[in-house]
Design brief:
single chain, 157 residues, mainly alpha, 6 helices, disordered N terminus
Length: 157
């Protein structure tokens, strides 16, 4: 079953699912290992170019808007918490939030191409060939597959 109903216009449809999974894993490790804001910005820029390869600007725009709303809500709750616990307010500066937000956007940039250009069966087979336990690879595949399904449900509503 195709992960999306859009025709195969993306260059990433020709790329093996294992390569996309390795890119996602490498980006995940890099976002955790790198703590410099400039290095995170570079990693974000590279991952954004990777995301643009799926050629779905509306999907990218909606994903970014939803992500920004979630981050604004998180900041709002952080400010409310800082009001009651002043020690928490020290971590609510823009500079201290920039790196975690850049990490989140980088992961968004590498997970969306995996979710929208891979077939569920390919993802399951690749995860199974890694000799991962069933309790790890099945939820991972379901999570990746949830994104296109959720997008299609929103379109229907």
């Amino acid at each position: 079953m195709q992960a999306s109903s859009v025709p195969n216009l993306s260059l990433l449809n020709a790329v093996d699912i294992r390569v996309k999974m390795m890119i996602t894993a490498l980006a995940s490790v890099m976002t955790v290992a790198i703590s410099s804001l400039y290095a995170q910005c570079f990693l974000f820029a590279v991952s954004f170019l990777y995301l643009l390869m799926i050629r779905r600007p509306k999907l990218i725009l909606v994903s970014y808007l939803l992500f920004l709303i979630m981050m604004a809500i998180a900041c709002g709750f952080g400010l409310v918490l800082a009001h009651f616990l002043p020690m928490m307010g020290k971590g609510m500066e823009l500079k201290s939030l920039a790196v975690p937000f850049m990490r989140a956007f980088t992961m968004l940039n590498v997970v969306l191409p995996l979710a929208f250009t891979g077939r569920l069966q390919q993802i399951l087979n690749s995860l199974q060939k890694l000799k991962l336990p069933f309790v790890i690879y099945l939820p991972a595949a379901v999570i990746v597959r949830f994104i296109p399904t959720f997008t299609n449900d929103i379109k229907q509503i």
